[in-house]
Amino acid sequence: MKSIIQILLVISLSLLSAFSIYAEEKISGAEVINNNCARCHNARAVHEFSIPEWKVIMPHMREKAHLTGKETQAVLEFLELTSQSVPLAQKIAPEKIIAPDGKQLFTQFGCQGCHSLKGDGGTVGPALDETIKNKGIGFFIKKLQNPQFNNSSSPMPKMPLNEQQIKAIAEYIKS
Amino acid sequence: MLKLLPFAIATAVASGQLLANEQQNNSRFALAGYGDVKYEDSKLMDTSAFSARFVPIFLFSLSDKMHIEAETEISVDENGETEIELEYADIHYFLSDTTTFTAGKFLLPFGQYGPNQHPSWINRSAFSPGIYGGLGGHGGYQPMQGLLPVMSDIGVGIQHIIPLGKNQKIFFDVYMTNGLAAEAPHDDEEDAHDDEPVLDEHEEEVVDEHAEEEEEHEEVDAHAWELPELAFEATSADNNSNKAFGGRIAYAFLPGIEVGASYYTAKYDEKLGFTATGFDINWIGNHYIVRGEFIKTETDSFEEDEHEENKVITFDRNGWYLQATFMAGKMFNVLQGTDFVVEYAETNKINEAERWAYGINYWLDSRAVIKATYEDTTVQDGEDDKRFAIQYSYGF
Fold this sequence. Notes:
The complex is a heterodimer. Chain A has a single domain, classed as Cytochrome Bc1 Complex, Chain D, domain 2, CATH 1.10.760. Helices cover about 55% and strands about 0% of the residues of chain A. Chain A has helices at about 1-20, 30-35, 50-65, 70-80, 85-90, 100-110, 110-115, 130-145, 165-175; strands at about 115, 120. The termini of chain A are far apart.
């Protein structure tokens, strides 16, 4: 009897979910990390595991964290993006080598998934509005080149960005 | 059977590594897990000792839809014997974007501590919350008699997720497993039934006396008033054809809050049942984490009335804990990596006790931590205890 009730519950909830309004927008992997990966444990550093390992670990976390398949995929794509080597990053936007577009990089690397800017964005990292003003551009560049340099437990991934691109992001943040 | 486990592990690791080497881009195996070393000093037990554990996790991706996970816990007990426990070994089948089917031995989704927070690199305290443990398995001995152990059992389960926009979700888990048996009876027990409790694989560390659930009992003795002791360890047999059922429904407002309600019910004897109801909260802020659970249990037992007839009586217990972690390192640069933890727990109605715990944690990086926790337990009808532990734990 109880199991029948349970089955009915599953069915009704599935129906409910079919009608739930889940905007079919592109899911940001950084945002999924921001929203989920510090809930149970400290967010683990990307460089701890290789991408092939992450591909086997993420389904484990999908079940634990109750992620959807799409969210799991978005996290993996983001991890892959951040673990590319620096020169590869230039290939992503070859036309931007001369003048990297800070705004585009800011979006591409999901900074706002974890940080807020002008009051909008994620919360695992601090708001970025005042960082450069308070800590200087030197700190900003160093932080992006090696996020763990001043904080060994930082979950911020090391991005494949060269100095020029980092400066472009800084310009965008300041503007 | 257990003797084969190390061999199985070695084979799994070896073959996994071979595979990993073969296919650089799409490996199907990953080795993860955690380990810890703990120094514990207890006033009541009048002991101080080091203990260590190694808990490897084997993960396999068979396809986009199929994923296998297995965790074994290897530790050394007080007598110097190596204990190997199969924590879980199950297969997930991702039926759809939002629905997952699980079969095997898995951690039951009851509350938060059992399925999500008990690994020592995740738990912010060197001890398990007061309402868990003391029932064998994780937590081991503790002066406060817990309400539930970390539950892991054999069966099937379904998980369903309902995303409500970007930041809200409803989690839904149901499962059916082999369920409970009464703890193995004492030798002096007469006329055992065929369907009497299955023998437990290993000794329980529970402090209180075993209770009697015999139907034809000569006299009403004090024992009949004690809480029946249940064996939560999963076995591949079920002592009765009644399965255990349970589930959890939770609402998450991401990234900050998750609240859940859990239910578990099982028959541990023809006429005797056990149910647990729980509510949990996990609240994550920028500088703090607040975790808490309330659990209520109902355990049936036989009692003889004036006419020497057996009637079923139910023991009610409840308890809760609340743990607050202040991540000071996120506020003050000089304290980087430092957490301060305060926890309060109490159990009510039977074996009443309360406990305060205070801790300081130092994170070496995001998955390695040194925890120092001091605990002060007041037991209503029993001896109080003070404990202190330092634990070094690492996830890998």
